[in-house]
User: Fold these one by one.
Assistant:
Number 1:
Amino acid sequence: MGLYTAPLLNSYQNMKRLLILGGTGGAEKLATQLRAIARSKTTSIPELEVIVSLAGRTRAPLQSSDRVGGFGGVAGLQDYLQTMNIDLLIDATHPFAAQISHHAAVAAAEVGIPRLMLVRPPWEKVEGDRWIEVDSNAYAAQILPTVAQRIFLTIGRQELAVYSYLPALWFLMRMIDPPLSNTPIPPGEILLDRGPFDLSQERSLLRQYQIGAIVSKNSGGEATYSKILAARELGLPVVMVQRPPVPDSEKVSSVAEAIDWCAMAL
Ligand code: NAP
């Protein structure tokens, strides 16, 4: 019996736990690749348990998760990190999910564990783009009447209310899940769909609905970039909402770099 107990105990003691705050394609890829690496037991990070956390905003998330729902602010997250004996934290949330990133920064520092942000690079304006860069959806809404009358609104469902006081404009609103029943929404049509979207799809949508301008967050990544390409082709303005500030942090922009960071940190 003793022959078996010692290695098992040893293996358990060496096991490290990584919490990935997810909600992005990058988080999904990172979790999948790290688990495969840990299973293979041939690399510098063999003893790793990966825990993925989602906020629970999307009804049918593409990413699998080990827990769903808020932690209860900084104190709740701190408590979770301690109770679960988390050794490392990777914040791979969406660049517009500013609150959880700030909570993660404070909680990880309080508990004294390494934290990394995996953040995809923002889109860069190139020749032919007619971007109007703004700091917030509120500011985007304020200037929209001077930009166009028929708008393709691609900001998700959380901040629709900001545009609801613009009755003279018409909106094609694309989102994954429908708005909550008590959310005031602007006049127009709701299109439930999930990326990736291709260029021909985006081009036809803009033409079909006679769109005069797009509102987008500068989310970065490939999956939703086609609308920016289509707008460039058709010479349409894009009101581009800039990213909110994120906490000071060690940051990487690729899954491969995040895996290297894990290997170094363990
Ligand atoms: P947020 O404003 O930064 O977070 C609001 C609250 O949601 C947080 O304080 C936290 O609740 C909870 N939360 C957020 N991410 C969580 C996670 N991964 N695990 C557990 N709890 C989480 O974020 P948001 O803009 O509402 O976005 C929610 C989630 O959707 C994020 O995880 C993000 O990656 C994903 N997402 C967001 C966008 C976007 O445009 N904002 C787009 C695509 C995907 P407690 O304070 O109770 O812990």
Number 2:
Amino acid sequence: MQKIRAWGASAAGKPLASMTIERREPGPRDLVLEILFCGVCHSDIHQARDEWSGARFPMVPGHEIIGRITKAGSGVKTFKAGDLAGVGCLVDSCRACAPCKDGLEQFCEKGPAFTYNSTEMDRKTLTFGGYSTQIVVDEQYALRIPAGLDPAAAAPLLCAGITTYSPLKQFDCKKGDKVGVVGLGGLGHMAVKLAASMGAEVTMLSTSKSKEADARRLGASGFEITRDEKTFEKLARHFDLIIDTISAPHDYDKYLRMLRVRGTMVVVGVPPEATPVHAHTLIGGNRRLAGSLIGGIAETQEMLDHCAKHGIVSDVEIIPAQQINQAYERVLKSDVRYRFMIDIASVRS
Ligand code: NAP
Ligand code: ZN
Ligand code: ZN
């Protein structure tokens, strides 16, 4: 076991603080990454505050990790020491069940090993995320970072990027499609960039008027305020696809009514409470309400390669770990433009 410096929560809702954790000794197929940057996802806040219940403490959040490989085991084939590599939301799975074989490791029937707030496949060893100086990961669960992508700005692709890329692909986003993105935060800003890169006509649906210029710069051709009820009338039966990234309770029916016949709304945001949906809203137009959870390893690599090809990265605000608790409060106030990024040098010092 190796002792590693980290920032984490000792119990639900406790402010994050400096702590020491233990990582496993690397095996022959493992990479050791010296972590350079780790993004701050809203899921980190939900989990550090145990809003989805069942959280495990101590918890070191962080699943948008980019690091430099300092050691590659003797059996490692696709990486070498000195390479940049990424770790997203998964660090292992059973590798044998149908979802694992289909590249949907996030739905491993044995339960995947998530990067934090989870256990290794031994179901005993707690996993710890990227708000830390080092991580040990099997090469099959690490991602290649294409040359030319800035490491700090590329890190959010590993969660916010794949979580929005995957539903756009699943629901066949293509040139000319009318796509609505709900909520301009970490996921939302990636959804705008990615949908625009696929040729869609993107409308940003936001509660924050102050984000309009940014939304247009990111690639949206329309911007509407969802605090204004007229928006929902104006855009009734308008969209082919809506990607809903809102992290708090809201009325799904209102958004669903903006779908045209056979349109799909994909929920990726995770409000802690259940949300009622009226059958009339769905059947009146053969509308579809879908969900999507991150993406498998192969699809995450495909997304990174797509981003390199289209010059897409995240808009980040770099902070030291010492500012993490203030950053969480700003995320909760929808005041992030558009991803906080921890410079892990601050955890080392
Ligand atoms: P974020 O940066 O906080 O963005 C969420 C955005 O939603 C805010 O910026 C705000 O945008 C809007 N919003 C917030 N509260 C709202 C409210 N009460 N009513 C209406 N709009 C509201 O969060 P994120 O990191 O993008 O994550 C978003 C959600 O996705 C979280 O619940 C997170 O846990 C979840 N998530 C899911 C997956 C998955 O695999 N499905 C993966 C990662 C994250 P405006 O200011 O534009 O209104
Ligand atoms: Zn995330
Ligand atoms: Zn499996």
